[in-house]
User: Which sequence fits this backbone?
């Protein structure tokens, strides 16, 4: 997959995560899962999913052109 | 025993902060941004530590005590998504510009990007004004924690004073390097002891499941969002973490990165770090409703300290208090250092003494201003009695509402100083009006920050389109055609200061 397409896909992933943050479906659900309220478990899992998306973002869509090296650093 | 442990920990902080001074290179750039030399681990620790305040520990547990588990979704998981995204789109770009053009403060950037001294001056006053309540919650939190855990042996005023003194010592002596070293130690301490507090307290209840079952029996409404939070409130709260784009201490920490790629680990691990810190805070706050069912309003700020004192007295309470104090101090230090840097660079050096001050004088002025801000804020903390969570949210609201200024500066070539000024003035006016009238809901639970952002964005767009576009040479400086900058065009501020004009 081309870099531009991958970048677009990952940016779309950010938007999808943003939508999924609004979990109306667990709003009044008091079930306990693994001993914790399901609404809390969902948002903990959401944090892990965010971390995974960030991993893909830095791997496949990193803005390399922003790197700045001083002359001294470039010689090292 | 508790007090001994706390004082030993504070002494350790001072030793670490002092040791870092041995590496001090005697330049302003080293004092303020550690010569832009930090790698991935230190950057993650410092950015995370600087953002985890009394708000994240005491504020989160206090708010969860009243509003339940929804507090995690409001601030933790939303911050885990928005903050790294801002780092990715804005932080890396500002780091790149900062290194290429030798900036030490965000105001230097805005001043040159929009070619306006006046905008820089306005931003200095607005940003400094918004930082004061943010530092204030740190003093309030430390006073409450020390007083509660020592059963009043250390009164709130003395607790705040002790933390004030320690922070002052290592920030003014160690500068950014000392701050980041101490931050790293503090982040590790508060994450470790935060988890320890979680397991020790829940163990007394027979485990997490048993503790949650007790909450389900006594306060079932705290295990759902229900009426405590509205969907519009959850949606609009996602605007709050945009504040990191305009925090002066975040900008300062971004500049400490050695390379753009140094940001990578921060992006990946930031959401996990937030979750690991906030989950225990929120759960302990909710559980506090079982032991202390009658706390009203700001009294809930102390629920975590009360839980620790009740279930883990003695040396363990001292360690846990050290964890809470760590979280508080590692943001207060960055905030005060950032304000000191702004004062030195954007006021003293820019207006009165440019080219007349030695590097040593710059550092000295920064130190004086830091002392002044800390003392003034400490005195304010003695008379303020409001929820730590609410005060913090007001501060975040102001910074988040100015996000269009930085976003337009970085991405929109057509944006102008008049657009930026219109945006900043609209935020200042709205913030003052809403804060003075204590309006926290603009309808259906929607946070004022959402309205502020709409107005601020509109002001930026309209103000820019109605005025003359920026000069071509300004655009060329900030938006190079191919994005590539040759190494021989880059000169750090310390090199520049040693180079004759």
Assistant:
């Amino acid at each position: 997959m081309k870099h531009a397409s991958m970048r677009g896909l990952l940016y779309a992933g950010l938007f999808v995560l943003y939508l999924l943050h609004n979990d109306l479906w667990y709003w009044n659900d008091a079930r306990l899962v693994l001993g914790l309220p399901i609404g809390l478990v969902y948002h903990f899992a959401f944090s892990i999913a965010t971390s995974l998306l960030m991993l893909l973002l830095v791997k496949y869509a990193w803005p390399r052109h922003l790197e700045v090296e001083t002359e001294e650093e470039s010689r090292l | 025993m508790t007090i001994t442990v706390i004082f030993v920990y504070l002494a350790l902080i001072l030793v670490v902060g002092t040791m870092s001074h041995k590496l001090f290179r005697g330049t302003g750039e080293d004092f303020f941004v550690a010569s832009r030399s930090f790698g991935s681990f230190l950057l993650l620790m410092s950015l995370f530590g600087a953002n985890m305040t009394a708000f994240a520990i005491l504020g989160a547990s206090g708010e969860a005590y009243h509003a339940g588990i929804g507090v995690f979704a409001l601030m933790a998981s939303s911050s885990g998504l928005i903050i790294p995204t801002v780092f990715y789109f804005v932080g890396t770009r500002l780091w790149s510009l900062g290194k290429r053009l030798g900036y030490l403060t965000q105001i230097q950037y805005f001043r040159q990007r929009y070619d306006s001294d006046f905008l820089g001056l306005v931003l200095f006053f607005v940003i400094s004004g918004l930082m004061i309540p943010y530092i204030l919650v740190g003093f309030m939190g430390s006073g409450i924690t020390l007083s509660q855990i020592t059963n009043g042996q250390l009164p709130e005023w003395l607790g705040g004073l002790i933390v004030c003194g320690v922070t002052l010592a290592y920030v003014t002596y160690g500068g950014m390097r000392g701050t980041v070293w101490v931050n790293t130690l503090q982040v590790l301490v508060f994450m470790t002891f935060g988890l320890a507090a979680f397991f020790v307290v829940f163990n007394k209840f027979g485990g997490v499941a048993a503790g949650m079952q007790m909450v389900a029996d006594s306060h079932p409404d705290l295990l759902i969002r229900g009426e405590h939070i509205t969907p519009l409130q959850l949606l609009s709260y996602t605007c709050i973490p945009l504040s990191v784009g305009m925090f002066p201490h975040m900008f300062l920490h971004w500049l400490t990165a050695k390379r753009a790629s140094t940001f990578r680990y921060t992006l990946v691990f930031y959401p996990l770090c937030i979750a690991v810190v906030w989950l225990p805070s929120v759960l302990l706050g909710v559980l506090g409703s079982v032991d202390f069912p009658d706390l009203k309003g700001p009294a809930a700020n102390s629920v975590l300290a009360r839980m620790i004192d009740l279930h883990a007295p003695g040396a363990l309470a001292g360690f846990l208090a050290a964890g809470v104090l760590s979280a508080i101090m590692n943001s207060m230090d960055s905030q005060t250092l950032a304000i000191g840097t702004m004062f030195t660079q954007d006021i003293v050096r820019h207006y009165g003494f440019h080219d007349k001050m030695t590097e040593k004088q710059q550092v000295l002025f920064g130190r004086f201003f830091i002392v002044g801000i800390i003392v003034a804020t400490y005195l304010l903390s003695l008379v303020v009695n409001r929820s730590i969570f609410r005060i913090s949210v007001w501060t975040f609201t102001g910074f988040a509402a100015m996000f269009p200024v930085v976003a337009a500066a970085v991405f929109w070539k057509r944006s102008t100083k008049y657009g930026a000024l219109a945006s900043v003035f609209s935020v200042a006016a709205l913030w003052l009006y809403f804060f003075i009238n204590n309006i926290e809901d603009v309808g259906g639970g929607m946070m004022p920050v959402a309205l502020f952002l709409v107005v601020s964005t509109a002001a930026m767009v309209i103000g820019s389109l109605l005025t003359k576009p920026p000069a071509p040479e300004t655009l060329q400086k900030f938006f190079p055609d191919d994005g590539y900058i040759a190494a021989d065009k880059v000169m750090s501020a310390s090199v520049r200061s040693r180079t004759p004009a």
User: Anything to note?
Assistant: The mean pLDDT of chain B is 83.
